[in-house]
Amino acid sequence: MKLTPLHRRKSGFVTIYVLFTSLTLIPVVGLAIDFSVLYNVKARLQTAVDAGCIAAGYTLQRTTDMTDPTQLAAIRSTAQSFFNANYPTRYWGSTQASYTATPATGANNTRTITIQASENVPLLFLRVLGLSQSTVAAGATVTVRFLTMMVVVDRSGSVGRGGNTTVVENALTQFIGTAGTSPFVDGRDVIGLGSFGAVWHTDLPPTSSFRTGTPTFTTAVTGATGLHGEWGNSPTNTAEGLYQAYSQLQTLNQTGALNVIVLLTDGRPSAFTATYSIKATSSCMDKTNKSGVVTAYVSQDSSWPPPTTQGGAQGTGGNIYNLGIFQGLWAGMAGSTDMQLITSTANGGNPAGCAFASTVTNIPSDVATFPNNDIHGNDLTTGYYLAPGTSMNDPRSLRYSSFNAAFNQAKTIRRDTTLRPTLFVIGLNEPAVAGEPLDADYLATLANDPNYKDSLGNPVYQSGQTPGVYYNVSGSGLAAAFQDIASQILRLSQ
Fold first, then answer.
1. What is the pLDDT of residues 39-83, one digit of tens each?
2. Is 52 left (phi over 0), alpha (psi -120 to 50) or beta?
3. Measured between alpha carbons, how far is 425 from 78 in angstroms, rounded to an integer?
4. Which of 31, 52, 208, 469 has its CB surrounded by the most CB atoms within 10 Å?
5. How far apart are CA 250 and CA 244, in angstroms?
6. Rounded to two decimals, what is the model's pTM?
7. What's the CATH class of domain 147-270+372-492?
């Protein structure tokens, strides 16, 4: 066909259109392809620096000297090995522009490892615009915060009556004692175990060798002289358990660590430790002050709050147990009750002639009132409850004061801005067996759980105090609660 001048003009227009379109499309397509390459390199490089940081972080121990050239070289070598394993040489034709791995001591004695890396990546299509390569960089920092944890177990009679002793022992063993089911690292993390009834016993002093030392955490739980042999028909001195665990953390003074207290209890507090004044009219031959534990009888039904009088022998008040006598005889008392009357001069004054020495219900004959503060300075009369008084004749005052002692001790722990301990509180809820309902609102208040609202819909969280977590579980849910605590700890350690 013969082209007319009009056809020739159209053909020329198409040629010019394709030419100008190509000048636009080729750079755009090239830009998309080159950016895809750069994105892949960036993602792979970030994975590599992350892997190097994490691997190097696992090599850090509490004993690692961050000023020792040999130890620093080993840390950097581990980081380099994992970086190389995750970023192949000349990935997409790239060449290394820079790489640094810097171990350091951070705030509050935390350990940090920072890796910075960059790669020169050749460009393909953008060379037409005079761009031959681009530099891609990635960085990561891992902060290692060691764990210092005290596990506090309520060994009172209700746990035994609920048939949960074996459940508790198995869950504790999986939580910490068994390497395959526990995230905690022997030789690095510091973990201790203690239990309380009327008084406190340290089953495993805080140690970094909780799986390899003597005793191990597992034997401290299941051994005859450990928790397994301590279950007994004893009251619930929650304040003493919290105080002793906190004291262990204070003694260690690991300001850079994640300090944790895990409290496992199934009951409402019923006892506190204090120093009591003997009445001038008492029959006690020695009228010096007596130190020990006082407990109110726990109601054997589901009524709460307890009445001001409980009838019969229980209406005369509480029992007194001597802290020093119990601790001194501990080695020969495995498996027996931890209720001990003041029967010698050790740590309690001479009880000779005292009415309570022979019959505990005679306590009010010797001691008219209890003090406003327990032996650790915790306010007994105000806190969670406004106690109706300090009379040793009033079981209700004794019970309310037991709540207040633990409430104020937990508040002291949460207000510590140096150690900043986190409280994880597990309420082992078996009310049908324990005889008295679990006070979930109270235990959530101890933990300072920001996600918990009480029975009236009000939050229990107190701002300005370290938040914690409360768990309300039956025996069958205990292992899952421990598993969640482990996850929470790992998150807080980052």
1. 999 999 999 999 999 899 888 877 788 889 999 999 999 999 999
2. alpha
3. 38
4. 52
5. 10
6. 0.75
7. alpha beta
